[in-house]
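ASSEMBLY PREDICTION REQUEST
Request ID: AP-0331
Submitted by: J.K., bench scientist
Number of chains: two
Total residues: 1009
Priority: normal
Notes: Please return the full assembly, not individual chains.
Input sequences:
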Amino acid sequence: MAKAELDLLQGTFDVLVLRALSWGPMHGYAVARFIRQGSDGTFRVLDGALYTALHRMEDRGWVESEWGTSEKGKRAKFYRLTAAGQRAQREETRSWNDYVAAVARVMKATPELA
Amino acid sequence: MKFPSGTPSWRRYLQFWRRDVRGEVDEELRFHLETRIDDLVSAGQDRATARRTALEEFGDVTKVSEQLYAIDRRLAQRGDRAERLRSAVSDFRYAARALRRSPMVAVTIVLTLALGLGVNAAMFSLLDVLYLRPPAGVVAPGGVHRIWIQRRFESGRQFWPGFDYPSYRAIQQALGSQAATAIYSYPQHSSPLPAAAASGPVVSHVSASFFGTLGVHPARGRPFTLDEDRFGAPAHVAVISDEYWHRVLDGDPAALGKSLVVGNGRYTIVGIMPPEFTGVDLDATDVWLPFAAFGRVSERPWWENRNVNGFQILIRPRAGVSTTGVDAMITRAMHRPELMFNPRDTLQVAQIGSIIRARGPGESQQELRIAARLGGVAAVVLLIAIANVVNLLLSRAVRRRQEIAIRLALGIPHRRLIRLLVSESVLLSLVAAGAALLAAWWGGALLRSVLLPDVNWGSTPLHWHVLLFSTGIALLAGVVAGLVPALQAANPELTDALKAGSREGFGRPSRLRGSLVVTQVALSMVLLIGAALFLESLSNVRDLDIGFDARRLVFAEVFFADRDSARDAQLGPRLDALAQRLRRAPGVQQTALTSIRPMYGFSTMTYFPDADTTRHKISLATFAAVSPEYFRAAGLRFVRGAEFATSSRAVVVNRAMADGLWPAENPVGRCIHFEKPDAPCFIVAGVVETARRDNVFEAPKPQYWVPLGVGPFDGFRPHTLVIRADPAAHALVMSEVRRELQRAIPGAQPRITRMSDDLEPQYRPWEVGATLFTLFGVLALVVAAVGIYSTISYGVSQRMHEFGVRVALGARMVDIEKQVIATGLRTVAVGVVTGAALAVAGGRLVASLLYGIEPGDVRVLLAVSMTIVAIAIAAALIPAWRAARVDPLTALRAE
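STATUS: Completed
Returned structure:
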């Protein structure tokens, strides 16, 4: 039975894309696949949004693109983190971890007795 | 939802020019969708379902595509701009590196171009001031006009810009409220103070409406009021220029209210003009005084006297008034009966023109014509400079041909290579422009004092007009100079250079170089011939017999600031006594008196000669009233008779008048009646050689001289003392005269000048032409010589191999030298002949400026040709020497 797919929360998309690219240059489809597989199908990935995110990141200078050949021999556009992108990736990851830790703390906390 | 279509092949082709944003986005998305579909199919779905799933997963393809297009287009534009800037910067960095490796060439090119550019900047600056720049500080100068009166004479049309006050009044009344009007006297040095050595400030008398018409206001204080500009009782107030305030009064903040001595009068300073305003003429004004204070000695009030003229009128028509309408109104006003000299006066059509005097009708002053032609000369110098630079760059390109061939082999696009090479010359050119402007700044003062010393050049020596012009032609010169060698260098045939080595010379570059040398030599010929022609003209002009011994003459003119009839009556006897005293002064050979000094102006009187005037006509004869010693003092030579006695009823005529009225007769003893046909007779006492009346150049004009104080001429009082003295003693004589004048005639404003100084401006055009043509010609020749040297040198280095063989086979050094020189001379000869032909053909343009020599003068052509050939031989000597002494072994072994 397929689990219900969750929509990615606003702002977490970029972290995942950056994480994907931190493994090395990938074309857009590979990034989508990485996120889909990595989340075990939990997330519903709107591919269109992914490409918009990738192009926006290129505009911001976090990634640079280059046309190359895919594994199957077809022409594909590869993305790669720039130095700024790597810095952004570390930043975003740390922010995300802080965020997650804070949420976890609140979840574990018990209300204080008045 | 639309599936993005495949990229058609023509789209891919576009990518050679610029990124195809749409195509790329489409291709990217298509790849994604196709891959997804393939994966889903591999996972077991059928194609149709897989397609649907993929599209669903994607979202709105069209919307996303549009978003991606927008982002990518923005990205691409930014990238392109950055790329262009990067490539331009890298081009210039490459150019700078390349130039640093060969500094000598770079410096030579910069100097050569700086020369050409500097000359052009200087010429343009001159023309700018004369023609383009309206007087500084004037509000809306396009709306202010001067008036010219066109008079038709037998010799042609003439335009006169000077007026008397009654005419101005008539014009003012005719124009009414349609225009604001003002009248002023042309700025002139005021008479020097008794004790001062330097001349006084430059003074202009202006009407109260002057400042208002121009829209200028004093920065401090106030202008004159209408009340202060009243005839007969002018207020003694003055407005000074900012420059005068700083120069003479040291910028004293309490200057307003201080008094200023100008000539013989005391004036209170009431206003100081803002820094940029110095009047509306090329000569800068220091002090403005009320028009009514102009004052000259005369019987009638000078402002009613039509003979007191030469004033300048400015008008500013109200908005909407047409210029033809204004012309018509002024013409009508000038045709009023009281303003016409006689009923048959062939006056006068008024024409208003620009406030820039040079743009007025008929303003064909010699200086302006020369300035315009010099612009052409400057352009020629720049062409020569560019030709030399092209030559130098060609040499460089040849030396770098291996480097260039490698780049071409590695696939640099031709356009890029050409851009690279041209950026070198543009960089050099811009550096040269900077150098040129610096030189123009420093040397500008020198140049200006040579060309037009009295002109007001404005506060900034480098106006932005000049900067803009210089930068513009520097860029143009850089591109032009660099383009030809670059096009040559980018020629793919050069890849053969890698293989062939330097054994063979190139046919095409040699032809190009040859034609460059021909161009340089031809242009140098033209300039040097011009120089020779002007020098000859100048010499002829200076030697011209104007009829006087101008070098010996000193004039002392006496003016008074106010009117005193008792004193004026005494003037004659007092000056006479003074003249007698001065005759005994050391260095003085003769003194005399005259009513008006020679070559300054003239007077007229109706006359009725005892001659057959129906058959023998002359143009209007003019006169001066003089003392009998005048002729000996001035150096006028008698051909018949002798001078008259003092106060006798006699007249001396000049040859032009004698030959005109009494041809082939002796006119001595004949009779002339003045004012009325039956008036008492004046006997002709003598005939003198015709001397000049106004200019160094003119057709002979009839003139006569009458004694002072006789008959109808007694109103023409002696104002000028003529002193004939040894030129070496002039300084002493002038100060002596001044002292004596102050003593003998207190209250006089003496103006003491030498005739040669008066005449100097008339020679200036030829001086200017000769100086500049010579300067440019010599510079051009130097540049051409360098060009010849480098071309022959290059040719020799190309044929070292051949020379080596010949020397090894036993050729004599002399023969090789002769051959090298002969080859070089062949090109030079072509240039000389071309240059001579150009000079003769273009001679028509300057023929009107020359004097006493034709543009095609054979002596000049020969002399200049031989000079150039001699210099060419000298330039060829060094390479020839090298060629003859080549070591055959080295030459044969070398590449």
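REVIEWER COMMENTS: Residues 367-543+762-893 of chain B form one domain.
SIGN-OFF: pending second reviewer
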